[in-house]
C-alpha cells in the first residue's frame, strides 16, 4: 500500500536576520551606484521522518559596495516547516531544493528590501530567481563530482604507488 502524498506549508518564519552598515554615515555622502553581490544557500533537515516533516532554510546574503567600501551587508535566513511525504526521493529532492525555496524567497526578498531602507539606503529589489534551474545545476554539479571521485578512486586503485602501499582517501 503506497503512502498518500502530502505537501503542506505548516509554518513560515524568519530564523535569523543581520544588517550591518559599517561605513555610515560617510557612505551616505557618496553617489549611490553600488555593486551588488548576492549569495544564497538552501538547507533542508528532516524533523520527523514518520510525519514527513522538514525544515527548509533559505539563506540570502546581500552585500552592497561603493568602490571598495561596504555600504551594507544584509543576511536573512528564511525558514519553514513543511510536510513532504509520499514522494520518491527524486521528487522529494526537487520539492525541498526548488519548490520550497520558491515559496520562501518572496518573504526573504521583502525582509531584505525593508532592512535596506531601514539602514537609510534605497530599497533593494531582488529579481525573481529560478530555483528549478538552480536545483538542476546543483544536480549536475553533484553528478560531475561523483564522476570525478569515481575516476580518481579507480586511478588510485589501478596505479601502483612508489612504495606499493595502498592509498587511503
Automatic annotation (TrEMBL):
Coiled coil: none annotated. InterPro entries: SecB, SecB-like_sf. One of its GO terms (cellular component) is cytoplasm. Its main location: cytoplasm. It is found in: Cytoplasm. Homotetramer, a dimer of dimers. One homotetramer interacts with 1 SecA dimer. NCBIfam families: PRK05751.1-4, secB. One of the proteins required for the normal export of preproteins out of the cell cytoplasm. It is a molecular chaperone that binds to a subset of precursor proteins, maintaining them in a translocation-competent state. It also specifically binds to its receptor SecA. This is Protein-export protein SecB. It comes from Ostreibacterium oceani. The gene is secB.
